[in-house]
Design brief:
2 domains, single chain, two-stranded antiparallel ribbon, disordered C terminus, globular, alpha/beta, Rossmann fold, 60s Ribosomal Protein L30, Chain: A
Length: 559
């Protein structure tokens, strides 16, 4: 049974990215511009129902809600080449069409007056799902609608669907240059509070990094919005491949969250993708040859990350999941992981498993590719705190002078006082401190001051202590913790029949195969969490090579 995901697109940026994303999914699944299955789309083996449902006339309709307070982008979608695939009842445009004037407060207070209509759309989509797993929000945190109305919707989604996973693809402003929205530090800080408190997973996409990568790949001084949107849609498509072409592991959203986010508060993820070619981005460079090692090595290079961070001496990976697409021999993956370990290309946290998880998945048979292998990295890295620090620093500079504050005071959230700003800043600074604390070996020690906030309890999973909310009934955190604590093993290992006596590395294969090969990295029967907590080496859920033997003092290489 498919685990359906409903996509919520908020604001101009969210809808522009979403439009590109749905075009790509239609092409990958052989769905025409009017929603019908193409005659050549006979391969099967994919799960279209995760993101689409079939109407009475058998057309495929995206499980998507498109929201904006000004009509320009939505009008473009409704008159564009893919206008017929959407459900016309799932478009919401603000009544006066004036937008939110790049003001978080304006977007948030508008949510109070329009939320019933939007929630009715969401309820209708949820009721039409057989086994709804969660929601995926696409938005920017710099403007007014994506940040303000998006924040309001995050709160309401969490209240209405407390047991469903909420993942966001959040576009952050370019904090290294002055952008079009002069008040983006205000909007970003206020949005960050909701992303921290109301989302389970946040995929961070930085406009500055996107422009840099696009310029490097396309040889243009100023990439267009369409070109950067193509970068984002390619990443989104790759990150959902294991859901749409399922294998043994990582075939639902909760398993991805469980493998990447060991502690709930550190749930901001960065991405890298290679290679970008003419298949997914117009005017991209031609790639002469791709190998598994080359792809995995490039994914670890900071210049390929879609977030502009400044790694410090103690910066390290909390977790890594590489999604490798193409015709790949699992033994090549194993050799590549060993080479990465030998070269010390990645530094991991000292209190958890040091392993790169790998999921092999097939490419769409309906899109010709001019490269053999492509890869996406989803990573939880402590250096992302440097991005948050820049936002706080820019906010402090503007707040000190009360610059552009009058527009916010005219909105409902700030009518009486500016406490909303102060509370948001406190949440973000606590988040920064959490990521910095995660770099220390005593992060999980009670004596280190890493205690659960009020209203939370401590749950033990595989000897690894994490802080999760504990309501009367099972919560999302419980579900994720259970998945972490019960990492499955293959029923019939094809090589090592005695897991207690054989040291093995397990690689998840998109076709459902699990391949093991003899290594000296530890007993594969232990989960990564258990091995880390007991001091032994081990293999994480999808099974990359255990990196713990490379030395915690290894310095991440910069290219």
């Amino acid at each position: 049974m498919p685990r359906e995901i409903i996509t919520v697109q908020a604001g101009q940026c969210g809808n522009s990215i979403g439009s590109q994303f749905w075009q790509q999914l239609c092409q990958e699944h052989g769905i025409s511009q009017d929603g019908n299955l193409e005659e050549f789309a006979t391969e099967g083996g994919d799960r279209k129902d995760v993101f689409f449902y079939q109407s009475d006339d058998t057309r495929y309709i995206p499980r998507a809600i498109l929201i904006d307070l000004e009509p320009r982008v939505l009008n473009g979608i409704q008159t564009g080449p893919y206008k017929n695939i959407y459900n016309p009842e799932n478009f919401f445009v603000g009544k006066n069409g004036s937008g939110a004037a790049n003001n978080w407060g304006d977007g948030y207070q508008t949510g109070e007056s329009v939320h019933e209509e939007i929630m009715e759309m969401l309820d209708r989509e949820a009721d039409g799902s057989d086994s709804l797993e969660g929601f995926m929000m696409l938005h920017s945190i710099a403007g007014g609608t994506g940040s303000g109305l998006g924040s309001f919707l995050l709160e309401r989604l969490n209240d209405r669907f407390p047991k469903k996973i909420i993942q966001t693809y959040s576009v952050f402003p370019d904090t290294t240059n002055s952008g079009d929205v002069v008040v983006h530090p205000y909007n970003s800080l206020l949005s960050m509070r909701r992303l921290t408190q109301n989302a389970d997973s946040v995929v961070v996409l930085d406009n500055g990094a996107l422009s840099r990568i696009a310029a490097d790949r396309l040889h243009v001084q100023e990439p267009s919005f369409q070109q950067t949107n193509q970068l984002v849609s390619t990443v989104m498509s790759a990150s959902t491949t294991t859901l749409r072409y399922p294998g043994y592991m990582h075939n639902d959203l909760v398993s991805i969250v469980a493998s990447l986010i060991p502690t709930p508060r550190c749930h901001f993820l960065m991405t890298a993708y290679t290679p970008f070619t003419g298949n997914n981005v117009e005017q991209a460079k031609t790639v002469r040859k791709t190998t598994v090692l080359d792809v995995m090595r490039r994914l670890l290079q900071p210049k390929n990350r879609m977030v502009s961070t400044i790694p410090g001496k103690k910066s390290c990976y909390i977790s890594i999941l590489n999604v490798i697409q193409g015709d790949v021999d699992p033994t090549d993956v194993h050799k590549s992981l060993l080479r990465i370990r030998e070269r010390r290309l990645a530094t991991f946290i000292p209190w958890g498993p040091a392993s790169i998880q790998v999921a092999l998945t097939k490419k769409s048979p309906y899109i010709p590719m001019n490269h053999r292998v492509s890869g996406l990295m989803l990573a939880n890295h402590t250096s992302i705190a440097t991005l948050f620090k820049r936002i706080v620093r820019q906010y402090d500079g503007m707040r000190k002078r009360n610059a552009f504050m009058e527009g916010y005071k005219k909105t409902a959230p700030f009518a009486d006082n500016l406490n909303e700003f102060d509370e948001a800043r406190e949440v973000v600074t606590d988040l920064i401190a959490e990521y910095e604390a995660a770099e220390d070996a005593d992060y999980l020690s009670p004596d280190a001051g890493n205690t659960a906030p009020a209203g939370e309890a401590t749950k033990q999973t595989h000897n690894l202590t994490t802080h999760i909310n504990m309501p009367e009934q099972q919560s999302k955190a419980d579900i994720i913790a259970e998945r972490q604590a019960n990492l499955p093993l293959p029923e019939d290992p094809p090589v090592a029949s005695d897991w207690n006596s054989a040291d093995a590395t397990k690689v998840n294969v998109g076709s459902g195969r699990d391949v093991t090969s003899q290594t000296s990295t530890g007993n594969a029967q232990q989960s990564g969490l258990e091995g880390a907590a007991t001091g032994g080496s081990s293999v994480r859920e999808a099974g990359g090579v255990d990196m713990s033997n490379i030395g915690r003092e290894g310095v991440e290489k910069k290219n």
